[in-house]
Amino acid sequence: MSIQINAAFDSGNIRLIGIEGDRVDLEIVKDHLSDFYQWFHFRVAGAKGRTLTFRIVNAATAAYAFGWPGYKARWSADREAWRVADSGDYADGVLSFTQKIESDLVWFAYFAPYSMERHHDLVSRIALQPGVSHRELGQTLDGQPIDYLSVGDGPKQVWLYARQHPGESMAEWWMEGALEKLTDADDATAQALRARATFHLIPNMNPDGSRRGHLRTNAAGINLNREWHTPTMEKSPEVLLVRNRMDETGVDFAMDIHGDEAIPANFLAGYEGIPSWTDAFGEKFYEFGRRLAAATPDFQLELGYDKSAPGTANLAMSTNQLAERFGAVSMTLEMPFKDHQTNADPEFAWSPARCKTLAHACLDTLAGFIDEI
């Protein structure tokens, strides 16, 4: 039986270049109307009993090629458990990974995928929970719904939103964990949070890019996290519709959930450099990070992005825009495509289950912090 490679499905992305013996050469396809690419997701049939080496031959010109060293591809036979490949390497501009195939069908991805079908299952399931309301804020350029959920009736306005960059699928795994905890009738922390705050949640900011198999952009090739200063219905309806709802509710606390290609750790990025920055304002962000690091070994404070110099913050990015626009304690949570190196898992690396556990830790931390915002 010949080997068959296919990516013609929700969030699929790969192009077959050629197969020679047990070597499969592939290319990642660029985001539509964009030069961004790095996300891959494909299935392999007809290879049971063989050990194959996959070579992504255009890895050197991917958006964040500096993130390939130390990275390990994920694979699954059942699309539930996603393990790291048997071996892998990045050399001479080619990302390669080798895997013994023990089933008729096996799937590979940059990170454990979160399909739009699973998204709809999640939204439908959570919307049925007591105290939860759902609204379709509008539609994307491809006509997909922008789903908004709210829960709680407290005075603090908390916004949690994920997956502006669609290839960062760990973000929606985190949101699944957050939504499950917030709607757990037996969770005392969730009960306290719902009493103190109203939560506004966007599980997926970029449905079009998610379904198309994009790394970073929407259907128009637009990076949504560079649109928050002047979004438009023509290029970035996702941002405009969400920001309009934020204007209606106000924002006291916000977390924008992402994934990072290079840094092997979970970390936060803040709003240093905004015009209204004060040390007292910034200390609230720093204190949340310190408490989160104390709460879980899956978070740390040493690794992260450089801070913006005074007056240089990019207000087109959501974290900066919300801090400036609303005076919100606003932050970006970054999770790794690699692993959280200080608490590593050699079999699964950073995984969906750990994304969900980190979401629980974030909410536990927020429960002890919400009155200080």
From TrEMBL:
Its cofactor is Zn(2+). Pfam families: Pepdidase_M14_N, Peptidase_M14. This is M14-type cytosolic carboxypeptidase. Residues 112-373 form the Peptidase M14 domain. Keywords: Carboxypeptidase, Hydrolase, Protease. Coiled coil: none annotated. It comes from the Bacteria. GO terms for molecular function: carboxypeptidase activity. Belongs to the peptidase M14 family. The active site is at E334. PROSITE patterns: PEPTIDASE_M14.
